[in-house]
Amino acid sequence: MYSFNELHEIIEKEIDGLEFSAPPEGLFEPMKYILGIGGKRLRPILVLLGANLYKDDLSKVCLPAIGIEIFHNFTLLHDDVMDNAPIRRKKKTVHEKWNSNVAILSGDAMSIKAYQYIGSCEDKYLRDVLTVFNQTALEVCEGQQFDMEFEDRNDVEIEEYLNMIRLKTAVLLGGSLKMGAIMGDASSKDAELLYHFGVNLGMAFQLQDDLLDVFGDEAVFGKKIGGDILSNKKTFLLINALETASGDVEKELKFWITTKSFNPEEKIKAVGTIYEQLNVREYSQNKIENYFALCLEYLDKVDVDAEKKKELYSLVKGLVDRSV
Amino acid sequence: MYSFNELHEIIEKEIDGLEFSAPPEGLFEPMKYILGIGGKRLRPILVLLGANLYKDDLSKVCLPAIGIEIFHNFTLLHDDVMDNAPIRRKKKTVHEKWNSNVAILSGDAMSIKAYQYIGSCEDKYLRDVLTVFNQTALEVCEGQQFDMEFEDRNDVEIEEYLNMIRLKTAVLLGGSLKMGAIMGDASSKDAELLYHFGVNLGMAFQLQDDLLDVFGDEAVFGKKIGGDILSNKKTFLLINALETASGDVEKELKFWITTKSFNPEEKIKAVGTIYEQLNVREYSQNKIENYFALCLEYLDKVDVDAEKKKELYSLVKGLVDRSV
């Protein structure tokens, strides 16, 4: 059995070795660039972990796993164009380094490359792997569409938000594990349990990201605190706060999300304090714990020795312990 | 055996019946829109014709054929964003009717839908169909990349241009026939012959389009004449003219492609006359005839009764007769 870190190394090595050498270079350079600027490689590692629960030889699972990472990076590339984001992982985004057309077209080519790699699984798994992947990939687009639509809406409800992050983020974690399980010859019951494990892990992870963006330790979290507050992003925290606030607190919150001129530090502090006052921080922490608990319940039921599951348990533990 | 027109009706009916009903509507409305504004449906018909050479029952080939049409329309949708084109088939383009983000994201979702439909072929063909499709789809992106790069270059050579249109246009016609042939249980030799038939047909078709854009009959051609001349598009005609012109003719041609202020009618007429003087029109006609001839050579070799091939022969004849 491989450790998480060993799998991470395998993935990095595969990505380093990727050859997209055919002309036109303008199409393939951006692919190499975005795949080369890092990232946690969580999704391809989940594919390998899913398979590794059931088989030791992962040699035929590696390229499909890389396909999932290519797909994920394709979505980031196009999301960055749509969000007009200048920076990704501390580097210029593709449309900033080149231009929007390059970003659109090399993204399109990446999505096809993703299918090539995912489709390089063994014949006996091809139908099932593709079915899971197609469904998941479409849901990721649906999530991004909801996310964009929410920007122009002031009546987004909690359930809608949770559905959006499920689609945009969580299903790809679940789908990665499930595809790995399929390529490991897992029972369909186990594959389904692992899917739900991954989806709930993704939900916890995304809600935790929202929380860390407000209350995290900048040095540990790795990015600037308060970005969501400054942009009035409709996170789990803000939607909840808007639903529960009344009286002066409601007035103050609405002041901060409508005023155009403000001191950034002051706004971050004020809105953070409101989240505490309204117990939105605590509510969010509870919700995250619930998702982690659910995710462990699913993992417990997976029908393999506990020893085999230890990397997945410690992955969960590591995430629970992210400093909040 | 089905006639071309019968197959066209089958495809239109399938497209009318497509249900992309899941929320978010903002993702699926643009798909319905672009698929609904017409087009020749040539590619899905070629899939069906390819299969129909070998089998009568096309019921399991229809959805994969629709997948090819979805893919083709996805490329048009993204190409229109990249070219900033306001009109497609006399209707507003998707990014004009909605916006660029909608066009990018619904295009992405269309490419996944395309894979879903293409992947709905029978299991025994899945690997081979996907291999052809992945390769072809990637080449279409490569062609679009070359096309965009050529806009900023003044030294594009004929062979580069021919390679670009092969990738951007011709391979998808060849690939459509080949995928159809695979789903009809054709021999791999026949599938290959049909691929080359389609590629050469596509080359002839595209070069003819370039020619009709200058010398065509507006009423028959269906779009305004001279658009390529006005935008200095590096077509087969212009590249050839630039390569062969010398002396006063070269001066005149360079005047027309550099001057910013001109009477459109006058420019179209003048450049058209230069093409005639340089025998570029005639050279282009010969080239087109060569591609048609090649394409018929491949079709002759396909190992099925001539009677079965008659729809493909008359498709070629119909294209040869497009008025030039």
Automatic annotation (TrEMBL), chains A, B:
Transmembrane segments: none
Organism domain of life: Bacteria
Record-level GO BP terms: isoprenoid biosynthetic process
Pfam families, A to Z: polyprenyl_synt
Protein's UniProt keywords contain Metal-binding: yes
Cofactor: Mg(2+)
Record InterPro entries: Isoprenoid_synthase_dom_sf, Polyprenyl_synt, Polyprenyl_synt_CS
Keyword Transferase: yes
Keywords, alphabetical: Magnesium, Metal-binding, Transferase
GO molecular function (one): metal ion binding
UniProt family annotation: Belongs to the FPP/GGPP synthase family.
Protein name, entry field: Polyprenyl synthetase family protein
The species this protein was found in: Labilibaculum euxinus
Top-level taxonomy: Bacteria, Pseudomonadati, Bacteroidota, Bacteroidia, Marinilabiliales
